[in-house]
Amino acid sequence: MSRKPIIAGNWKMNKTASEAREFVDAVKNAIPSNELVDTVIGSPAIFLEGMKKGVKGTELQVAAQNCYFENAGAFTGENSPATIADLGVEYVIIGHSERRDYFHETDEDINKKAHAIFANGMTPIICCGESLETYEAGKAVEFVGAQVSAALKGLTAEQVASSVIAYEPIWAIGTGKSATSADAQNMCKAVRDVVAADFGQEVADKVRVQYGGSVNPSNVAEYMACPDVDGALVGGASLQPDSFLALLDFVK
Ligand code: 13P
């Protein structure tokens, strides 16, 4: 089963609008064809519109880093998935461990967001991942499996097949302590097995599973060589144009 690789940068709460513009100008003509790889930048919501203008006519796609699960209403400070979709944004990252931990997002919120993102014609990048404590207790597969099942609840087989799931062990995020490729492969396979159990093998063979956590230009190829790793979700190494472009060298 061949799945198209997807490399996504997650800028988190970094860059000003003008820094984002400079970044896009620096990389936009060097992005490989999206027949080979989907290349995505997850930008802060406040300059998503500028990002979409900046990438027009290029192979670069844009993700929001979060959204609310209602399209409109009295939800001060939240961003509507309908509004994000209207800008032409293709993906929304949901369930990042930083959102779960610092902003108390639950599996139920994440599931509602996944439904809302599909209802608005976008694709969710659904994050999952265990803490060091859970990893060391040998409970990562069980914990991550439950997160994945909960996030996908009630979606159609077609929606699940088109989803992106990012496995990001919390202990590897921003620490420089990346998972071994064997661990990444085992966990991405475990994620796929959960999708197979809930939605069937055909759907599981189509869903794209990324590894995230201290991915950089020197280790990305090793992850991409794993049969169940279809891409990477990258924080720190996605912030500089040279480093971001080097993450895409594996397709050459
Ligand atoms: P780092 O690549 O900085 O470890 O961040 C990973 C991440 O959280 C991407 O969503």
From TrEMBL:
Catalytic site positions: H96 (electrophile), E168 (proton acceptor)
CC per GO annotation: cytosol
Domain of life: Bacteria
Record's keyword annotation contains Hydrolase: no
Pathway: Carbohydrate biosynthesis; gluconeogenesis; Carbohydrate degradation; glycolysis; D-glyceraldehyde 3-phosphate from glycerone phosphate: step 1/1
GO biological process per UniProt: gluconeogenesis; glyceraldehyde-3-phosphate biosynthetic process; glycerol catabolic process; glycolytic process
EC class of the enzyme, as a word: isomerase
Residues where substrate binds: N10, W11, K12, G174, S214, G235, G236
GO molecular function: triose-phosphate isomerase activity
InterPro entries documented for this protein: Aldolase_TIM (IPR013785), TIM_sf (IPR035990), TrioseP_Isoase_bac/euk (IPR022896), Triosephosphate_isomerase (IPR000652), Triosephosphate_isomerase_AS (IPR020861)
Reaction equation(s) it catalyzes: D-glyceraldehyde 3-phosphate = dihydroxyacetone phosphate
Keywords assigned by UniProt, alphabetized: Cytoplasm, Gluconeogenesis, Glycolysis, Isomerase
Protein localization: Cytoplasm
Pfam families found in the cross-reference section: TIM
Entry EC no(s): 5.3.1.1
Function: Involved in the gluconeogenesis. Catalyzes stereospecifically the conversion of dihydroxyacetone phosphate (DHAP) to D-glyceraldehyde-3-phosphate (G3P).
SUBUNIT field: Homodimer.
Family: Belongs to the triosephosphate isomerase family.
Protein name: Triosephosphate isomerase
Organism listed in the record: Streptococcus henryi
